[in-house]
Amino acid sequence: MAAYEALYRKWRPQTFEDIVAQPHITRTLKNQIMREKTAHAYLFTGSRGTGKTTCARIFAKAVNCLHPKDGNPCLECEICRDAEAGALTDIIEIDGASNNGVDEVRSLRGNAALLPVRCKYKVYVIDEVHMMSAGAFNALLKMIEEPPAYVKFVFATTEIHKVPATILSRCQRFDFRRILPADIVGRIQFIAEHEAFSISDAAAHRIAMLADGGMRDALSLLDQCAAVSEQIELSTVEEAVGVAGTESVYEILRAISGHNASAALERIDLLYRQSKDMTRFADELSQQLRALMLLKTAPNDLSLLGVMPDDAAQLQELAKGFSLAGILEALSAVRACCDRMTRAGNRRMELEMTLIRLCSDFQAQKGDEQALNARIAQLEQQIAELKQNGVPAAPLPSAPRKAPAPKGDVPAQNLQIEGKPDTSKYIPVKNWATVLERFDEVNPSVSGLLQESTAFANDETGILLMMVRNKLFRKLFTQKDAVALGAAAQQVLGKKYSIRYKSVEPEAEQQAPADVLLQRAQAQGIAVSEQENIGV
């Protein structure tokens, strides 16, 4: 009985046409082979499972094939058959991770000096070349620069930044792209048609998303699912791979938008008891948050999401409970959690803390939004009432403008009322706190001194009278500030008032902190002055 062969080995591409999603590379290599203008050194770079080593093997066969067809190996001659069986001594595959020393490179140089035994070219395929040491790269440098005419090198790496520039400059570089989910789905369905199992569209799409752009990973997952059931459905994939499933992710997202930390923790507890991988679930959560971010940014282009139509509809519904700023905050928090989980001993606890924080933040945001909406509704009602009474409403600019200052920024001593005013003709200003908020945007330092003040308005005389308890206010309040405060009052109250104030002595226990500091500074200054006078 023949040994079972894994799907990714059984369905490994044999010609350039079989390689998925890399036409910019395969077309160039085929043209070079047909025109006999191949380079002496190539560097293939890209993420795992995108076809680098496979393409190198096809290239090695094609340049030595006895009967090439449009740049592809014929797969029928003795060279192609022996190359596929690994029986050719002229095609040498080397693992850069385990052959990364100077001695190994010297041995390679000695073998490269010998003529090919059966082939036209000796082809060295060095995988994971970035793992070679600096000394090994230096030993290899001269041979790459001036190799024998019958020697060709093909280097493959997933970490191009670790390859020295001296090596890069002597190679033709080809960048392998990540394979799109649609291309992976097509390949999976093609293989399923020729194997003893079937797969649904949703399951194929799920495998493609989990593969993250790698065809080898996708075929390994497909092999794993085929061992569970001959009819591969979405539930089969989730059971075989151990992922939580999109419904669990959607449940967590609903808990975040509804600031329901209890529901989120209950779902995490269920997944933990089912032995689901917390790190993988956090990554799934970040992927769906990314989909929500794209929905908020480009709601009319669903192709950016890369999800099934049913999932797109659920995501559109979920997006209604989030703002773009909230999604970005949640996405950053979950990605940071993923990074911490790689180092943390208790991954479940890391995820739970992140979800609790997110639910709390969204609760605070919702409270702020409710307060803001209530404030807007109140202002709209006031504007409507003013219009009904025939009073023109003051404009509400996005950024209040400072009123023009009079000549000379002098203290407003003439605005202070001496004696006891007749308060029977005044009515309390209910929106005084709102007036101070508007004034704070213009002059926060002076408005802070009015926090303990109250205000009364006399519509007959058009005077707005402030009862001020802060002694420092009298020294800092100027004519310019009075004009700005009057403008703020007009914006909120809808009527123009002249600003006046009355100083009210605060009780000792209610004395403003600024006054206390001022008194301490004055007392210290007097003490120092007395010490100087007596010669201390």
Explained architecture:
- There is one protein chain.
- This protein has 536 residues and is of the alpha/beta class.
- It folds into four domains: 7-175, 3-Layer(aba) Sandwich (Rossmann fold); 181-241, Helicase, Ruva Protein, domain 3; 246-364, Zinc Finger, Delta Prime, domain 3 (Up-down Bundle); 413-505, DnaA, N-terminal domain (GMP Synthetase, Chain A, domain 3, 2-Layer Sandwich), CATH 3.30.300.180.
- Helices cover 52% and strands 9% of the residues.
- It has 22 helices and eleven strands.
- It has helices spanning 7-10, 23-34, 52-64, 78-85, 102-112, 134-145, 165-168, 181-193, 201-211, 215-226, 234-241, 246-257, 261-273, 278-297, 309-319, 324-341, 347-388, 432-440, 444-447, 471-476, 479-493, 513-533; strands spanning 41-45, 91-95, 122-127, 151-157, 172-175, 198-199, 231-232, 427-428, 454-458, 463-468, 498-503.
- A five-stranded parallel β-sheet has the order 2-3-4-1-5, covered by helices on one side. A four-stranded mixed β-sheet has the order 8-9-10-11. A two-stranded parallel sheet has the order 6-7.
- Helix 12 crosses helix 14.
- The protein is elongated, with a radius of gyration of 38 Å.
